[in-house]
Amino acid sequence: MAAVVVALLCVFPSFVSPRGSAPPAADATPRLPDVVIIGVKKGGTRALIEMLSLHSDVVAAQNEVHFFDWDSHFQRGADWYVSQMPRARPGQLTVEKTPAYFTSSRVPERILQTLPDVRLMLIVREPTERLLSDYTQLFHNRLEKRKHQESLESLLMRDGELNLDYKALNRSLYHVHLQRWLAIFPRTRLHLVDGDALVREPLAEMKKAEQFLQLQPQINASHFYFNQTKGFYCLRERRRQRCLHRSKGRKHPRVSPEVLRKLHEYFREPNLKFFQLAGRTFDWK
Length: 285
Ligand code: A3P
Hints:
The protein has helices at residues 2-11, 45-52, 71-74, 77-83, 107-114, 127-144, 152-156, 167-171, 174-182, 195-200, 202-212, 257-278, and strands at residues 29-30, 35-39, 58-60, 87-88, 93-97, 119-124, 157-158, 161-162, 190-194, 224-227, 232-237, 240-242. It has twelve helices and twelve strands. The chain is of the alpha/beta class. The protein has one domain: P-loop containing nucleotide triphosphate hydrolases (Rossmann fold). A hairpin with a 2-residue loop joins strand 11 and strand 12 (240-242). Adenosine-3'-5'-diphosphate is lined by residues 41-47, 99, 133, 136, 198-199, 232-233, 244, 248-250.
């Protein structure tokens, strides 16, 4: 039997789907995405796409495609983009996530041209926490490459003031980026997910996402369980349980209260502008 399975896998690599479920139906083909998760980096984009994939009418690209923000990919054209997508049956929604889209100025127009009916999702998180998460990722990447580590303070502070050129700071200025998207797409096309709420209570956020995507309600409490060791909710599909990769949900560095105070103060005005643009508020103290 094992030999038969191995032979089948050689001839039909898609015999086992990426999530180890049933083989795709014969009428399943890769298509342009119906839904794009545009960001924000470290907002909880992986958790969001994995949780959406719990729904049987959603199929998700495994990797970040970077089609619209990397010229080398964009120049390959829409056929190449389609080739990066998973097979979808008629009626299923194809989703991809590339968090770098949110902050890239040419992306909104490119998406509109390529995917005129797309629905967009943006997951945001309290901006200081997002910045710390962004720094933590950079820290770990450099650690893996055995490169020199700079402290957050040295990147973030210049002569006692915040260094406004620090990229991770700019990424947390959500209103600056959102206004570019809203100049191209109507607000109704964009769904905002509360990344902090997704950590605390994933089901409630996923119910709102199902509604926005006009999916039959399907995601339910049995899909989630809290894993004490990880300190986050993990996913349960059929009888399989899985947590997100260990790079998700890392400990953040200790930052001096003075720097934290400066950051919170700095983001106060931008946050209000973001709430106004978004037409809703977030519980960011
Ligand atoms: P931290 O690692 O800073 O805690 P992204 O996928 O966009 O890179 O976002 C990563 C963040 O997703 C993590 O940041 C974590 O807080 C958040 N997250 C949300 N739900 C999660 C979950 N169920 N498991 C792990 N991380 C989750």
